[in-house]
Structures are given as structure tokens and as C-alpha cells.
Specification:
The chain has 235 residues and is α+β, with helices and mostly antiparallel strands. The chain has two domains: 114 residues, 4'-phosphopantetheinyl transferase domain (Ribosomal Protein L22, Chain A, Alpha-Beta Complex), CATH 3.90.470; 120 residues, 4'-phosphopantetheinyl transferase domain (Ribosomal Protein L22, Chain A). The strands form two sheets. Strands 1-5-4-3-2 form a five-stranded antiparallel β-sheet, with helices on one face. A three-stranded antiparallel β-sheet has the order 6-8-7. Strand 4 and strand 5 form a beta hairpin. The two termini are 21 Å apart. It binds coenzyme A.
Length: 235
């Protein structure tokens, strides 16, 4: 477990997760696992959810099976096991905020004991994930496209992927995911621009994570974003 300032982070190789621990998951999680079209996708989902429980359990001292997953989807206002990851843990009042991202055989997990952040998001991708022709027009703001012009050709793919993981981390921290247009939010600076509502006036922290620092292979890009209202103290 890597304890950087802020949420506690851990990178996990999904194939290392003991799927025999699936009994730790609750009914909604097990029901969602049955919806995947292949056993590989089901196992990837299940391994991530087990790993997140183990991560939170190591952080709070509660047994992993005692956590209540309380995910909330703001798009469909549903608590049926998808959307923003939140957990109720016996040792604490309120809901513990978490985030998770899977890519290939890897998963990055984040959980926070700090109750001040209103949103946490992590995202990982392998280095060439955003290396396709339509990416700049589909996903980037005009300002980000301007910055891309300054990047040497050999580094453009890496630049785009780094921008993408920042963007997804911010969209997860907002709780919207891709229900919000990624091209409307500029993540080229330390504070995202183009936001509306309370997050626009909030304190943001958006960081590129070194894959080595979190224990992932060097060809990954990883980012974490957190935000909190200004009146609840410094991050
Ligand atoms: C969030 C999202 C950007 C992540 O996509 P991805 O890069 O393919 O996948 P990742 O592995 O990086 O992240 C998946 C995790 O994101 C988190 N997540 C999903 N929706 C989220 C949301 N609205 N806010 C914050 N985090 C979310 C969950 O922890 C999920 O893990 P799970 O599969 O165990 O539930 C994408 O799934 C998305 O946009 N979802 C919302 C779309 C929507 O509104 N759908 C309507 C459903 S009714």
C-alpha cells in the first residue's frame, strides 16, 4: 500500500486476487458480476471489487465482509451497485469514499479516511490507450489541443493518454463519469476548468502519479483527482 498525501492508494495485479474471496461481495455486486458477457470480464470486475474491499479493510481495520457497498449512480439515481463507490464501515460514521480503475491486468485503488473530500477519482490506462486519430477533436478542449501542438511527435501519444487519465479521474471525482462531456473540461492545469456548480468553486488537487511510485509497470499513465468545498479546510 502506498500512502501518498491524501487518499490511500494501492496498485493490484488482478490475476493475483483470490477469486475464492468472492463470498465477501454483497448481493448487488454478485448480481452485477453475472451481467458481464464473458467469464474474463466477470473475473476482472469481481477481482477489482474484492481488492477494493481488502484495501479499505486494511485502512480501517474492519473485516472486508463487514463493509456495505453503497454505490450511487447520479445518472439514474440508482443504488443498484454501480456509479460512485462508497462504503459503510462498522468502525466509522458516514460513508467512506473510494475510487477504482482497471486497465489490462492492473487495478488502482484509492480510499480516504479524510471526510473533507467531496469527490475522489483515480484512473489508469496503458501509455498508448489514447493514441488514435480522433482523440483530440473528440476529447480535448481548444486550449489542450493548442498545448498538443507544442509536443514533439514522439511524445504526443503519451501526452494524450496522460490527459485522458486526468480527465477520467476528474470526471470520477465529479461523480458524473462520461455522462459529462469530457471535451468540456480542461485538465491541462492543476485545477480543472470548465466546471459548473459547487465543484467550480471548490479546492481541487489533480496529480499525475508515477507508475513506479504506486507499483505499476512503467508504461502506464495514472492520475488522481480530489475536490472539496473551500469552507471545510485545506487539503
Ligand atoms: C466512470 C467511467 C468513466 C469509468 O470507465 P472506465 O475507464 O471504462 O473504467 P475504470 O476501470 O477506469 O473505472 C470503473 C470504475 O469507475 C467507478 N465509477 C463508475 N461510475 C462512476 C461515477 N459516476 N463516478 C465515480 N466513479 C465511478 C467505479 O468504481 C467503477 O468500478 P466498478 O466497475 O467496480 O463499478 C465510466 O464507467 C462512466 O462514465 N460511467 C458512467 C456512465 C453513466 O452515467 N452511465 C449511466 C448508467 S445508468
Amino acid at each position: 500500500m502506498t500512502s501518498l498525501q491524501g487518499p490511500s492508494l494501492a496498485a493490484v495485479r488482478l490475476s493475483d486476487v483470490d477469486l475464492g474471496l468472492a463470498h465477501l461481495l454483497d448481493e448487488a455486486e454478485l448480481a452485477r458480476a453475472t451481467t458481464f458477457r464473458s467469464s474474463a470480464l466477470r473475473d476482472t470486475f469481481t477481482a477489482g471489487r474484492i481488492a477494493l474491499r481488502l484495501h479499505i479493510s486494511a485502512l480501517t481495520g474492519d473485516s472486508p465482509g463487514s463493509l456495505t457497498a453503497d454505490y450511487f449512480c447520479p445518472t439514474c439515481s440508482n443504488r443498484a451497485g454501480h456509479g460512485i463507490p462508497q462504503y459503510q464501515v462498522p468502525s466509522r460514521a458516514g460513508r467512506l469514499r473510494a475510487s477504482l480503475s482497471r486497465s489490462g491486468n492492473w487495478c488502482l485503488l484509492a480510499a480516504s479516511l479524510d471526510e473533507r473530500p467531496a469527490g475522489i477519482g483515480v484512473d489508469i490506462e496503458n501509455g498508448s490507450a489514447a493514441d488514435f486519430d480522433g482523440f483530440p477533436s473528440l476529447v480535448m478542449t481548444a486550449n489542450e489541443r493548442g498545448q498538443l501542438q507544442e509536443v514533439p511527435p514522439a511524445l504526443k501519444a503519451r501526452f494524450q493518454t496522460r490527459l485522458w487519465v486526468r480527465k477520467e479521474a476528474v470526471l470520477k471525482a465529479l461523480g458524473t463519469g462520461l455522462a459529462q462531456e469530457p471535451s468540456a473540461i480542461d485538465v491541462s492545469g492543476s485545477t480543472p476548468a470548465g466546471l459548473s456548480g459547487p465543484p467550480a468553486a471548490a479546492l481541487w488537487k489533480v496529480e499525475d502519479l508515477s507508475p513506479a511510485a504506486v507499483g505499476m509497470p512503467g508504461d502506464f499513465a495514472a492520475s488522481i483527482a480530489t475536490w472539496q468545498p473551500r469552507d471545510v479546510g485545506p487539503q
